[in-house]
């Protein structure tokens, strides 16, 4: 047994001598290798105390060079003091760890992986000499390692500490990879993972409306994974990445896992299921003072563990921006914001943050900035000139207040007044030969119907209502049928009177006023029947036409049935055609006051007006359709009035000698 033990100890002694010669103590120049305090349980510490500061201000126009003066300063010295103070406070307390003393091995990493690895080896070995797989100092049990290394270094250290089942607590590392408790069962950290950091960064970008973002990160697995998440978060929130640059750069486990206490600030300290401390981020404003020092001030925070809306807090008034930005937040946009009334059009081959602003089309608006698409206004609304608000469309109809409506109203009243004067003249001279010779009762009916024709055109002016839409065409059709049937009765009466004077004519028994009234009544009754069928099958109604004029609603009367409308017009055309043919054939009959010539000419004017009306009516839209029909009614009525009755009035008023029995006798003798 003793021989076996000697055989084991001799190789160990030789190995120790070889190791002693190969592994020299770590030397850091003028910096002390480490700070050591003995105890029953030892806590290893790897912190970064020194930092690098460039004395000259950066120009932001070129990459900084190492030729600039660089100064090392103890930025994190308070972390070092806090570590030592916490251990001393625990050792001096009789309530925390009675009869147990904590010690520590505290090393500086100098932001260098080699020094950090050497510090870890020294902590495991128990002294400054590296002896892998050996704990050379047995005065205290190593309980855990607290480190403030970057994520990549922390992950490398974790692989080493895991072999010995040493708990590792990090207050710097935020790598997402370290959240995997299966791969890193002994790793703890007092800061949240980079997943929440990404959300906090995106909230900060959204607050200042920064959408054109450049990202610089270390070239390691953890950072690359964070870059991917951060880029996705930025793009999901409407931002774009301008560029992405990377650069190289155990027994107490159960108790540490279930730790839960309150610190001096009454804050609960515990690790969640991912062994992360539920804490928030501080948004720190770094201001460079004239003397070269840096002043840091907390201006906000981000806490991923509180409700949305309260997770991101920032005090903009407390932020001190660089003098380059004149105390206004800098802009990070590829394109200027599109104001209301415009929409974004992404530039070809560019990210979505690079766009042009184009105005919304007519009838569409954008009431917010940076809208991707314009919104269509409702059917009865239209966009204003700025294209940022929908306004009600302009209501258009032929009104009495506009110039066209006033002109048509004036002409209607004027012709009605002339018609009334002519009627008064005929009534006053009713016993004269020229009035009696042309069937004065039928003339009265014709004049009254023409007067109503002039006045019925007023129904077409004004806002269309259900009643006025029904009365427009039906009144026009009925009154015009009376007028034309009266003219037809006049011409037929003249023809029958001529043929009745022949010996043995059978037409003599049909002579008299009865045949004229029969013609007028039958024609009017037929037109009345057509109008009744029209009104009971498809009556006219007010219609809001939103297509005929851009940005306006034309209120017009829809005829209901165009077939019925053209049937009414067709019957009027039939009466006019029969009257024209009859009057034309009887124009040369021997009669002292034969008005067939005048009726022929009046029917010719009537037919020309209404033949011209149809294509003009079909080619116009809106209120001008109504104006065309009013003009046709007044023009045709004025043609009948002027051609038939003006010659009679001229004879009655200007040539009374021709309106006498003596003149008629002399004319017959000639």
UniProtKB/TrEMBL annotation:
Domain G-protein coupled receptors family 3 profile: 404-668
GO terms of molecular function: G protein-coupled receptor activity
Record keywords, A-Z: Cell membrane, G-protein coupled receptor, Glycoprotein, Membrane, Receptor, Signal, Transducer, Transmembrane, Transmembrane helix
First and last residue of the signal peptide: 1-21
Entry's Gene Ontology cellular component terms: plasma membrane
UniProt KW Cell membrane keyword: yes
Main location: membrane
Membrane-topology descriptor: Multi-pass membrane protein
Residues passing through the membrane, by range: 403-429, 441-462, 474-498, 519-543, 563-586, 598-618, 630-654
PROSITE patterns (UniProt xref): G_PROTEIN_RECEP_F3_3, G_PROTEIN_RECEP_F3_4
Keyword Transport annotated: no
PANTHER family associated with the record: CALCIUM-SENSING RECEPTOR-RELATED (PTHR24061), G-PROTEIN COUPLED RECEPTORS FAMILY 3 PROFILE DOMAIN-CONTAINING PROTEIN (PTHR24061:SF599)
Name of the protein described by the UniProt record: Vomeronasal type-2 receptor 26-like
Source organism (scientific name): Microcaecilia unicolor
